[in-house]
Design brief:
- The protein is mostly helical.
- The chain contains 6 helices and no strands.
- Helix 1 packs antiparallel against helix 6 and helix 2 crosses helix 4.
- The model has no long low-confidence stretch (mean pLDDT about 80).
């Protein structure tokens, strides 16, 4: 009875997509930037959760501005994995455009997310005297890890994020195509 109201399938696929993107991007960050596995996964989790939140906020703010026919198609596909019966002729072009915009928005949000994390890790925080030494040790460890991330010895972090984002979006696109062919 709740199936038509609560899009359980969308939630499950969002979690699956997040897990796949985190694993792939964490691997790329680990290999290209020589970060520890734990740090690379933490960075991948942070930037992917940030992108997911921003993406859903953009979706909920933009969809009321779309034409009614396109809005109906978009909501029907995202929440119920089917297009509405009266499919628009320009829908394929709109889907391709949305996919390209989504890729570049993800790239920008993830790069900005890393800069925000860098700022938060290097920002001096007030601490009490009891936890001061623990905080200093953790902060220096975080700085060393993030200095590796921000160093421009071999590869810039934006290039690594671009490669990781391209890999994760390609795999997720393949999963979406597989999902759409499987249901027909």
């Amino acid at each position: 009875m709740l199936a038509p109201i609560l899009p359980v399938q969308t939630v499950i696929f969002q979690i699956l997509f997040l897990l796949i993107a985190i694993a792939l991007e964490g691997y790329i960050l680990h290999r290209k930037l020589q970060l520890s596995r734990k740090s690379s996964i933490e960075y991948a989790i942070s930037i992917n959760l940030l992108y997911t939140i921003v993406g859903w906020l953009i979706f909920f703010f933009i969809q009321p501005l779309l034409p009614v026919a396109l809005r109906l198609q978009l909501i029907s596909y995202i929440f119920f994995n089917t297009f509405h019966q009266n499919q628009l002729p320009s829908l394929n072009a709109a889907i391709v455009f949305i996919g390209i915009v989504s890729f570049f928005v993800a790239f920008v949000v993830k790069v900005l997310g890393l800069y925000i994390m860098e700022w938060l890790l290097t920002f001096p925080h007030k601490t009490t005297t009891n936890t001061y030494q623990k905080t200093i040790k953790l902060r220096s460890k975080s700085r060393k890890s993030f200095n590796k991330l921000t160093s421009n010895k071999n590869t810039s972090k934006a290039t690594v994020i671009l490669v990781a984002n391209a890999l994760s979006h390609s795999v997720l696109l393949g999963l979406l195509l597989l999902r759409s062919f499987q249901l027909k």
